[in-house]
Amino acid sequence: xxxxxxxxxxxxxxxxxxxxxxxxxxxxxxxxxxxxxxxxxxxxxxxxxxxxxxxxxxxxxxxxxxxxxxxxxxxxxxxxxxxxxxxxxxxxxxxxxxxxxxxxxxxxxxxxxxxxxxxxxxxxxxxxxxxxxxxxxxxxxxxxxxxxxxxxxxxxxxxxxxxxxxxxxxxxxxxxxxxxxxxxxxxxxxxxxxxxxxxxxxxxxxxxxxxxxxxxxxxxxxxxxxxxxxxxxxxxxxxxxxxxxxxxxxxxxxxxxxxxxxxxxxxxxxxxxxxxxxxxxxxxxxxxxxxxxxxxxxxxxxxxxxxxxxxxxxxxxxxxxxxxxxxxxxx
Length: 331
Description:
Layout: E1 3-7, H1 13-21, E2 26-28, H2 35-41, E3 45-48, E4 53-54, E5 59-64, H3 67-75, E6 81-86, H4 92-98, E7 104-108, H5 111-119, E8 127-131, H6 135-146, E9 150-151, E10 155-175, E11 183-190, E12 193-198, E13 213-218, E14 222-225, E15 229-232, E16 241-246, E17 250-273, E18 276-283, E19 289-291, E20 297-299, E21 308-313, E22 318-319, E23 322-323
Helix pairs in contact: 1-6, 5-6
């Protein structure tokens, strides 16, 4: 996901505090001797000559005046994070550098420039570095970066088989966010085919809603996390990042507050999207729901063969959670 840094020069504690409140990932402070003062305001990464990331070593700033500066920025070692600032703020140097570097951060002056930098070449920069004394602009850019979405093409999946299983270990993922109707998490037996399991937003006569929770399924299943990666559900723990999607395929990042593993009766659910077979194993309980194409939840206890729910399909193949091009058959 995209990162938000704030450049603080001259040093101003109020700007640092506002950056932390706005959700900034880091503050850039060219002046030495300010790290301790920053840390008093809150926990945040400090980019400084004596900071958590050393300015001039771990992070290099390059002012782009012409082609020579652009080539210098492109030629820095791959592990170095590069902050670039253009003198007339055109996107051409960014386009060239985005194509060559992953760890690229662009200096921006306001939310309009931030939006453009985040969308350049569709991929955008890794992050924006805001230079401003306007506290409201810091909050505005913080909201903008936090709302950057991942968009997936969710597809209808026709249910072909529902099979009650015995007891198994399942994972309830409690997040630090409140989810809405039509939102959930993508999970599946294969990374190439996942179901949108709905959050526990619905009331029923026996159990109160838990809109922060997705009862995501068996411990062995994949779940999508930021950066087009997957994890096994059993790997999740407090503080991890996961992706939440709505029924239109719009994804947002949230954090795991608790991952709860309990032994429960399980249910194998299989479906087809075109010629692609998908499957998942969920807890066999009324409160566990998949998501219909219109965004309404449907309980697994009411699900029937022939029903349509939402899923996501890609070419299968993951190695340590990263997508790879290789021949893999998962059954």
